[in-house]
Amino acid sequence: MGILNGKVVLVTGAAGGIGRECALLAAREGARVLVNDVGQGVLPDEPETISTAETTAAIIRSAGGEAAANSDSVTDLDAVMGMVRQAIDLFGGLDAVVNPAGILRDHMFHKMVEADWDSVIAVHLRGAYNISRAAIQHFRDQGGGSFVHFGSTSGLIGNLGQANYAAAKMGVVGLSRILAMEGAARGIHSNVIAPFAWTQMTASIPVTDEASRQRVARFREGMRADQVAPLAVALASGAAAGVTGQIFGVRGNEVMVFNQPRPAGSVFRPEGWSAGSLVEAGLPALRSRFTDLGASASVFNYDPI
Prior knowledge:
The protein has 305 residues and is α/β, with parallel strands linked by helices. Strands 3-2-1-4-5-6-7-8 form an 8-stranded mixed beta sheet, sandwiched between helices. It starts with 7 loop residues before the first strand and ends in a 6-residue tail after the last helix.
């Protein structure tokens, strides 16, 4: 008896990487799985992936599980509505959505063209909206369901060259929080995972010298996609009572929960603030509470554990 025994789970972006590991583990834990992947590369001008949604579904079936494939894009609401109907028609229901589907179009912001902004927003943020909107009424009607969305430290902390990705992922964080708040009375859970894993999404890290080669080797060996899947499956199960509205991270064998924005300090002036007095006194008084401009690597500056 697995933690997802009798459940139906839809996993997006599941031809490879984190999505595939989530789909495979969900099946091993007893779920019937609808495996979705559009079959295109993560990076621009990349050929279509050799692995497909059907590849992952076939692995599940060969191991004795139940799975079907879907190759529609998460950017198309009608198609995503069809995914939900497919899961319900084939397997009799839908209990959880795990949504790691993603692409990258990295550029420094002053060089970022509109198409690269739009495509990343479409897959990550619009995709999260589509998959949530398609499933929400079904979850409400049945009195429960789980959304497992995927964020990134690129948004939570920051990374150079990823303004589009960071903006989309922080939008996903906000969406998940509201889904959790609005769904609480109906037994609907929504959480976000910010994963650290060596996948197509991170394999473009340049190797320029021995130090970078060793760093990439540590990432490849110490931060694997299969280490992210257990948390996604645990959250999809709904078995962890009251775990909703949270932002988690997985880095190797380390699972963390992130704090969420709350006031870190304040200044008060009985007569009110002017622009000048804020420059002279107010902002300097708050400076010790400011967050520095360090990127994700400055916060996670230790090897995966």
